[in-house]
Write the structure tokens for this entry.
Amino acid sequence: MSSSEDTEQAVRIEAPPLPDHFPPVSAVTPWGLLIKYFLRVDAGGLFHTYPHRGGPFKTLQEAQDAIDSYHTNLCKFKYLGELSNEDRYVWHKLYWRNGTRKNSKEALDAMKNYKPTREVVKALLDKHNEDHLLEDLAYEFKKVMSYKAHFPRKDSQHECRSFSHLNVLVERGPNATKDLLFIEMTCKTDGEFEEYVLSCICVVSSDDDGECCECGDDVKHPTGVEYKKGEAKLRFRCGRRISAEEFNKFIVVRDEDWLEAEEATVRQQYRMRSFADGHGARGE
């Protein structure tokens, strides 16, 4: 048996089994990153990442390692071992893992340019294509045309964390026929994972005039199809209110003078701590 075959067999033997119920489409948020990734498990048990980071992967750990590796390679402080202890301290305090400075325009742009709705829709469409459609009939994602998220109350009839109504432009077939889809995407919490499912998908036309208490005219809904109609609310709600701490941490962009002053403060903290530790070690 060749060495490559030995390695392949070792991988198959050592690969950890999947949990009893691993969600077909789920979300993971890598530590220290501003973005959310989505994972799809295909019929063969392989993991696909959205956004695409290589693969497909045989194990969840391989998929997570690929995500980490991608962002490590983007990082301008890729080799922390080459930094001084002080610079490493500054890095951990003031930088995201993708190498962008917290509260900088670069970090905000990186967050704004990522479109999680598009990625989870692509994952769900790929799952739907695999389960239900032949290759010539498979939907090819093009664009999210409209989107409305809903967050049911605790006493809601809808037993889920959230659901969303979307109109999505797709193409299918050798002639690239364009269709406008209505999609209802439901999110449930499954242990440590967020699970996403397509609870409704169908083509809509200009004649469709289905209703939803919360979407209004923002999204075109189908007629004669079962989907969550939403619930009338006594007051306006737009998801969870962001806290002042979260706003300052993720959204506020500071100017260069502010960023330089913050770095100077962090460096001073490190030097004072190092000085105190040195004196304590000598018993002074």
Q: What stands out?
A: The mean pLDDT is 77. The helical segments are 3-14, 60-74, 85-94, 105-113, 116-132, 244-251, 256-282.
